[in-house]
Each structure stands twice: as structure tokens, then as C-alpha cells.
């Protein structure tokens, strides 16, 4: 089994928060605004709440298999063959997730900041950074996250604060937006925006068991939910629901409206900083997840020789979409609206199966005793 | 060891971002950054685009060879005009003459001619909104004359920095409330909104000839509360361009304008008014005036009732005033007369505000006050709000105004004595 290193509570918390919140800088804000308009700010809280519940249930599954990570649980319940198939599916999803996120980042960067730079150059440099991070392992990912979480959150909050003089607080009316029924429906679907927390189920043995990941996951989900909700509120205050549904990057557009006076304006660079860091960590996390997953499925002891082949695969997958519309309307829709099906619902189904067929881990009874 | 590696890693990440500069690097000295962009109807093509950019040189007005230079070159700026099918391609067309790359990223203002505004300027705004180089914080102005003329008369008379001059000039609107600073994103948002309609700063060129006409009237009239529109302010000075009033839109089409005084009343209702001097007639002394500095004391309270056949708008304004001058020397400061003073100011403001609202209802049929943001309180969902269609209801809405005015400061003198002849 691959040795993964260990993460402290804060490192894991920072890691999960950073990779979950990275999408706030991209098309996520606008897509959500188009779906739920003025109720977007509480729709995301519904998503967050749904995620907390589903993650809690997933943790219940893990409790039945002490000492096993998610892939071990799959094999324990479904048997080796189907367990490996599901493991491969997760690996493929992680490749898709990493390349889609990377591509979205590249598209945003090209739209706003680097129009003439070839996308391959940006992708390559991002992958080089990810390569170093992944090579150094989980502990380095955790340390980078813990180092950068607070500056990223402060950068984000300062953008919201500087834009405050232009806020129109009436723009969130009517308060129920598209109606409670639709808001709840979309809120449940958009719980996919928080599925990054399930990476804890894979890293469970590096973090300290179910109790620890439960605490980390839930607290990280709550913080991200609050940050998302604040972001949606501030965005609505500036653009309203009509104009708010048009921007490629809602938060970047928000940052360009900041104008305090002659001496204090054009602070978009703060956002660029807070934007790049989570993107690098998210890409690295995706790559790390597929490496760990692949190593687990095929019982490979050291994942490091796999880094280059996987980076190459990710590089190839990033070249598949023909244009940015494809990335936004297909890739991101799948990740942010439907990824809860394999990542939350499937483990819940497994929990039901394990209860019905009384399947437990080898150490379950020993731990209970 | 791990700490060192992490540090190296962070450094590598930062350095790697600099590689991108190989392709997107822009030497500041290779570019020109227009401060103003003017858009008119073209003759040979759809649009006539005018740009004004600083030359980054000290003003030449005091140099020995100043005699042959145009006023703009003297004030440290260049102006170029080109006809183009689009604003963005004009950047390339300017390159046929200008030796440096024209970049819109530092635009302070966009001036659109009234001709275009009256036909609808949504297509221009949509194009500008999509283009990364034009910032959403750039101010939007509608010019009574051609945008080209306005920009040609935009001379910096104090200091040599054109961008500074433009920004400072636009910010004066916050102090006088004779015009409003409207950013392009504010306009764009209102244009798409179903809560309010959009406005733009109204600008123009004053040929300064009206003030030179010799007066034939031995007793010039006392014009109080007469608002001005750009180009018609009786004044003389250095720069002919001027800002006064507000261009009013319905959707993306300009339907009229508010003069400088109506703009103040608009600001009062909108809650954007801070303070400003107002001269009102003294009802007890014809031909004499009183001067107040009117300040907003509380945010306006606006309630809209929508469950009747016609909507009802209730506005409550609470203002504070400092009395600065009483030409008649009447003792309005005394306890017995202070209410009379307040009432005179109140009646004057009430009349102006009512007329301004009626103008937007009857003439423009455009809710530029954003009463929709109060009307929406009566609706819980967007479907019901959109079905109600506030903007179509606004012209027929009844409007009730409650004005609370209190003169709290009465100037530096008290109990004025009569002048002895």
C-alpha cells in the first residue's frame, strides 16, 4: 500500500477548504446565478447543508470499515472485481476533474489577463508546479494549503470589502428568488460543488480516522458554504440577477468595479493572486487523487513513477474540448451539478448494501470491543 | 528539509507565472492610453471614434514655440479621430497614424453622442462589456454635441495631467450634484434591470458667446432654481466642455434629460445627495434671496403599494439645512420665524421634487429613481415580480411626498439690524 504521509487537523482543513473554494473564482458564480437568481446566496447554503448530511452518511460507511480507505471499502463491499472497476472510475473522474479545472483556469486567464500566451504554455507551467507538489507528497500539499488559506481568504474578503461602496442591498429582492421549490432542487443538485470533501474518505488513514475526517469535513464545508454565500451576496449586490448571469468570472468582474478614489482603484491583482493559488492546489489535488487511486487499485507501492504518464494524460484531456463554451457548458456542468451522484450517492448506496448484507471491515468488531 | 522544499516550491510557482510575460508583456512606453473615448455616427462607416490621450509631456503652453500648437497639444494631450465599423477595431485603425499601440485599459470616460443615444446604444454597451480592455468602472457620458467636439474642447486648464483632470472633474458631481458620475457597469446593469431605468452624465460644449451679449435690461431677472443643460450655462472660462444634468434612458434609448437642478432633486430621492448650496426666493422680500446649504440627514424612506389598481409611491425625505445668507436681513433666525423659514425651503424643494418625478412619469415614462427596488418588497418570487412588470406601471403611479426640513444652523450672524440710509 502506498505510504501517504500524515496531515494535521489544520492542514487537512486548509487543503479541503482551498480546493473546494477554488471554483468561486470561475464560472460557478454565474452559472448558479442563472439558475436561482436572487436566491443564489441561500441556495448554496442548502447545497452546503445537503453536503454536510451526505458526507456524514459517507462517514458512517467508513465507520463500518475501520482502517480502510474508500477503495478498501469498495472492495470490501463489492468484491475485488467491482471494487477495482469503481476505483478505476474514480481515477478517470479525477483525471477529468483535474483537466477540466485546469482548462477552466486557463480559459479565465486567457480571457482576462494573458490573451496572447499559448494555452499549452500555461497548462505546462501549471502541470510542472503540480508535478513538484505531487512529487513532494501529501504533506507538502497540506503545508502549502495551511500556509496560503488565510491569505487567500483575506484577499477574497478584501475584494468584497473594497467593492462595498457600490453595493445595492436591494438587489437581492425578491428574497425567495425563483421560489423555494426550485431553490431547494437546485441547491441539492449543486451539492456537487462541495464534493471535494470526499477526498477525505481516500486520505482517511493519513488524517487520523473517521472521527477526525468527520470534524475536518464538516467544518471545512461550513466555512466554504459561508464563503460561497457571501460571494453570491456581494456579487448580487453589484450586478443584480439580470446582468449577473452574463459574466464569465463573476468575482473578477466584481473586482474590476472597485473604485474608491483616484488613488485606490484597479485592485484586480489581489484577486489574481487569490485566484492562482487555489487553482494550483486544486489541480495538484486532482492529480494526487488519481495517482493514489491508481496505485491502490493495482497495488503499486510507489506512485512517483506514475506522475509523468498521468500528467501526460491530463495534458491530452485538456486539449479535447474545442472551445471555452464546451468547458463551461459540458465539463463544468457535469462536475458542479452531477458529481454528487458518484461521490455522495454511490457511497450512501454502499452503506445501505453493507447494512443489508451485514458487511463490515476486518477490524470492526475488534474496534467495537 | 520539507520546509526548505516548500519554500522552493512557492518560489517556483511565483517564477513560473512570470514566464507568461514572454507572450503578453507590454512595454508601457510602446503604448498610448486614451483617457477619453468618443463615439459618434460616422459618415463613411458606422461609427466615428475619437480618442484623447495624454502625451506624457509637460504642458507646452509656456514654451517658446507654443504659438503654432493647437490647444490640446498645449495642454498635454493628443486627439485622433477615425471611422470604423466597431469601437474595438478602431484600435487597429488608429495604428495607421499613431506609432504606439492604442490600449483602452486606462479609459476614464466614454462619451457617446446624443444622436446615437436617441437611437439606442445597447449594442455599443454590449460590445464594450464583452471586451476585456474596457473597464466597467469607466464613466459613461452622453454629449449634446458630437462626442468628437466635446473631446476636442476637453482641455486641461489646471496641471498637465489629463487623466487626473478628467477624474477630478467627474468627481465634482458628488459635491455639486449638478450631474452624476455613472460608470458603464451601472448603466449596463440598469439597462437590463426590471427595477429601474438607466441614466448617464449629460455633457456638452459651451461656446461661451451668450455671456458676451451686452445686457439691455437695467434690472436683470432673478432666475432661481433654473436648471442648466450643458452648453447653455452663461459663463466664460478656459475649457468649453461642461457637465450639467442627466441623460435619461428607457431601456437603451435616450428619452430626454434632466437639467442640473432636476438632477439635484433626482439625487435627493435616490439618496445620492450629500450637500449643496441652494438659493431660494424670499417670499417676504421680492427680488431678494436666501441661500441654504441643504444636507441629507437620513436615507430616504420609500414605500410602494402595489395591491391597488394604480401603484402608490410614498417618499419620506428628511433634510437638514444650514442658512448662509438672507439678503433682506429679515430675522428668520428668531424662534417665531424659523418655522416660516423652514416652510419656505420645504415648499421650494417639494415643488422641485414633484415636478421632477412628474417629468419622469409623463414625459419619459422611465423610473430612473429605482422605485422598483421598493416595489419589489411586495413580491416574494421573481416570477410574480416579473409578471407585475413594474416599469410599465410606473408612469401611472401616484406619488406622495413627505418632506421634513429643519434649518439647524443659521449662519454666523444673528438678529440683523436694518440698514440706515
Topology record:
The complex is a heterodimer of chains A (about 375) and B (about 425).
Chain A: H1 9-21, H2 28-36, H3 40-63, H4 70-112, H5 119-136, H6 138-162, H7 180-189, H8 199-202, H9 204-207, H10 210-244, H11 250-256, E1 259-261, E2 264-265, H12 268-297, H13 307-318, H14 324-338, H15 340-356, H16 364-368
Antiparallel strand pairs in A: 1-2
Chain B: H1 2-19, H2 21-24, E1 31-32, E2 36-41, E3 47-54, H3 71-74, E4 77-84, H4 87-94, E5 101-102, E6 109-113, H5 114-119, H6 122-130, E7 139-143, H7 147-152, H8 162-176, H9 184-192, E8 199-205, E9 241-250, E10 253-258, H10 260-270, E11 275-281, E12 289-296, E13 301-305, E14 312-326, H11 338-364, H12 372-375, H13 382-388, H14 390-393, E15 398-409
Parallel strand pairs in B: 1-5, 2-6, 6-7, 7-8, 14-15
Antiparallel strand pairs in B: 2-3, 3-4, 8-9, 9-10, 11-12, 12-14, 13-14
In short:
The complex is a heterodimer of chains A (369) and B (421). Chain A is built from 16 helices and two strands.
Characterization of the model:
- Chain A has a single domain (9-368), classed as Amino acid/polyamine transporter I.
- Chain A has 16 helices and 2 strands.
- In chain A, a hairpin with a 2-residue loop joins β1 and β2.
- Chain A has a two-stranded antiparallel ribbon with strand order 1-2.
- Chain A is an all-alpha fold.
- Chain A is globular.
- With 421 residues, chain B is of the alpha/beta class.
- Chain B has 2 domains: 29-258, no CATH class; 271-421, GMP Synthetase, Chain A, domain 3 (2-Layer Sandwich).
- Chain B has 14 helices and 15 strands.
- In chain B, the strands form 3 sheets. Chain B has an 8-stranded mixed sheet with strand order 4-3-2-6-7-8-9-10. In chain B, strands 11, 12, 13, 14 and 15 form a 5-stranded mixed sheet that branches. In chain B, strands 1-5 form a two-stranded parallel sheet.
- In chain B, α10 packs across α11 (338-364).
- The longest helix of chain B has 27 residues, at 338-364.
- Chain B is globular and about 80 Å long.
- Classes of the chains: A mainly alpha (369), B alpha/beta (421).
- Chains A and B meet through α5, α6 and α10 of A and α1, α2, α8, α9 and α13 of B.
Amino acid at each position: 500500500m502506498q505510504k501517504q504521509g500524515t496531515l494535521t487537523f489544520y492542514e487537512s482543513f486548509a487543503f479541503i477548504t482551498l480546493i473546494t473554494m477554488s471554483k468561486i473564482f470561475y464560472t460557478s458564480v454565474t452559472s448558479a446565478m442563472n439558475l436561482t437568481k436572487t436566491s443564489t446566496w441561500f441556495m448554496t447554503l442548502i447545497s452546503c447543508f445537503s453536503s454536510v448530511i451526505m458526507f456524514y452518511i459517507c462517514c458512517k460507511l467508513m465507520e463500518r470499515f475501520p482502517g480502510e480507505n474508500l477503495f478498501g471499502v469498495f472492495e470490501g463491499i463489492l468484491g475485488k472485481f467491482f471494487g477495482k472497476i469503481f476505483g478505476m472510475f474514480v481515477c478517470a473522474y479525477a483525471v477529468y476533474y483535474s483537466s477540466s479545472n485546469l482548462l477552466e483556469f486557463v480559459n479565465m486567464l486567457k480571457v482576462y489577463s494573458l490573451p496572447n500566451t499559448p494555452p499549452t504554455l500555461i497548462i505546462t507551467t501549471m502541470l510542472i508546479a503540480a508535478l513538484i507538489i505531487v512529487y513532494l507528497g501529501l504533506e507538502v500539499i497540506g503545508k502549502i494549503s495551511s500556509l496560503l488559506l488565510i491569505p487567500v481568504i483575506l484577499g477574497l474578503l478584501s475584494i468584497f470589502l473594497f467593492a462595498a461602496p457600490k453595493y445595492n442591498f436591494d438587489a437581492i429582492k425578491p428574497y425567495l428568488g425563483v421560489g423555494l421549490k426550485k431553490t431547494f432542487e437546485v441547491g441539492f443538485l449543486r451539492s456537487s460543488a462541495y464534493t471535494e470533501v470526499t477526498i477525505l474518505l481516500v486520505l482517511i488513514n493519513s488524517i487520523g480516522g473517521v472521527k477526525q475526517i468527520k470534524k475536518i469535513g464538516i467544518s471545512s464545508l461550513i466555512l466554504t458554504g459561508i464563503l460561497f454565500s457571501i460571494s453570491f451576496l456581494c456579487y448580487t449586490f453589484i450586478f443584480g440577477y439580470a446582468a449577473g448571469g452574463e459574466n464569465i468570472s463573476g468575482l473578477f468582474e466584481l473586482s474590476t468595479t472597485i473604485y474608491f478614489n483616484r488613488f485606490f482603484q484597479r485592485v484586480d491583482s489581489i484577486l489574481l493572486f487569490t485566484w492562482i493559488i487555489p487553482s494550483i492546489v486544486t489541480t495538484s489535488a486532482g492529480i494526487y487523487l488519481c495517482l493514489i487511486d491508481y496505485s491502490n487499485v493495482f497495488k503499486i507501492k510507489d506512485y512517483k513513477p506514475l506522475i509523468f504518464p498521468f500528467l501526460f494524460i491530463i495534458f491530452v484531456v485538456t486539449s479535447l474540448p474545442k472551445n471555452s463554451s464546451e468547458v463551461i457548458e459540458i465539463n463544468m456542468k457535469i462536475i458542479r451539478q452531477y458529481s454528487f451522484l458518484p461521490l455522495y450517492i454511490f457511497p450512501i448506496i454502499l452503506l445501505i448494501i453493507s447494512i443489508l448484507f451485514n458487511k463490515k471491515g476486518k477490524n470492526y468488531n475488534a474496534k467495537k470491543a | 528539509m520539507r520546509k526548505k522544499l516548500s519554500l522552493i516550491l512557492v518560489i517556483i510557482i511565483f517564477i513560473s507565472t512570470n514566464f507568461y510575460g514572454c507572450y503578453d508583456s507590454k512595454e508601457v512606453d510602446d503604448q498610448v492610453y486614451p483617457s477619453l473615448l468618443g463615439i459618434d455616427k460616422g459618415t463613411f462607416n458606422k461609427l466615428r471614434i475619437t480618442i484623447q490621450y495624454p502625451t506624457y509631456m509637460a504642458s507646452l503652453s509656456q514654451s517658446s514655440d507654443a504659438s503654432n500648437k493647437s490647444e490640446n497639444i498645449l495642454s498635454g494631450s493628443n486627439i485622433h479621430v477615425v471611422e470604423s465599423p466597431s469601437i474595438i477595431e478602431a484600435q487597429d485603425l488608429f495604428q495607421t497614424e499613431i506609432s504606439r499601440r492604442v490600449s483602452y485599459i486606462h479609459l476614464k470616460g466614454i462619451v457617446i453622442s446624443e444622436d446615437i443615444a436617441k437611437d439606442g446604444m445597447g449594442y455599443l454597451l454590449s460590445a464594450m462589456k464583452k471586451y476585456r480592455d474596457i473597464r466597467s468602472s469607466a464613466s459613461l457620458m452622453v454629449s449634446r454635441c458630437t462626442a468628437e467636439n466635446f473631446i476636442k474642447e476637453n482641455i486641461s486648464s489646471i496641471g498637465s495631467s489629463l487623466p487626473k483632470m478628467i477624474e477630478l472633474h467627474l468627481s465634482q458631481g458628488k459635491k455639486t450634484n449638478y450631474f452624476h458620475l455613472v460608470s458603464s457597469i451601472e448603466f449596463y446593469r440598469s439597462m437590463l434591470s426590471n427595477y429601474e431605468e438607466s441614466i448617464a452624465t449629460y455633457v456638452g460644449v459651451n461656446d461661451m458667446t451668450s455671456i458676451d451679449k451686452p445686457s439691455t435690461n437695467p434690472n436683470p431677472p432673478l432666475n432661481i432654481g433654473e436648471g442648466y443643460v450643458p452648453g447653455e450655462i452663461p459663463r466664460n472660462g478656459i475649457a468649453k466642455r461642461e457637465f450639467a444634468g442627466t441623460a435619461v434612458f428607457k431601456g437603451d434609448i435616450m428619452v430626454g434629460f434632466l437639467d442640473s437642478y432636476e438632477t439635484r432633486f433626482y439625487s435627493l430621492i435616490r439618496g445620492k445627495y450629500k450637500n449643496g448650496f441652494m438659493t431660494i426666493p424670499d417670499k417676504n422680500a421680492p427680488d431678494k434671496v436666501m441661500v441654504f446649504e441643504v444636507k441629507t440627514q437620513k436615507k430616504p424612506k420609500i414605500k410602494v403599494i402595489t395591491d391597488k389598481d394604480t401603484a402608490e409611491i410614498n417618499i419620506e425625505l428628511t433634510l437638514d439645512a444650514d442658512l448662509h445668507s438672507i439678503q433682506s436681513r429679515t430675522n428668520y433666525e428668531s424662534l417665531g420665524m424659523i418655522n416660516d423659514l423652514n416652510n419656505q425651503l420645504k415648499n421650494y424643494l417639494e415643488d422641485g421634487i414633484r415636478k421632477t418625478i412628474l417629468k419622469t412619469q409623463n414625459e419619459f415614462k422611465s423610473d430612473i429613481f429605482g422605485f422598483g427596488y421598493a416595489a419589489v418588497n411586495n413580491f416574494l418570487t421573481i416570477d410574480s415580480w416579473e409578471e407585475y412588470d413594474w416599469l410599465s406601471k410606473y408612469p401611472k403611479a401616484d406619488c406622495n411626498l413627505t418632506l421634513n426640513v429643519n434649518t439647524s444652523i443659521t449662519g454666523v450672524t444673528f438678529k440683523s439690524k436694518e440698514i440706515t440710509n
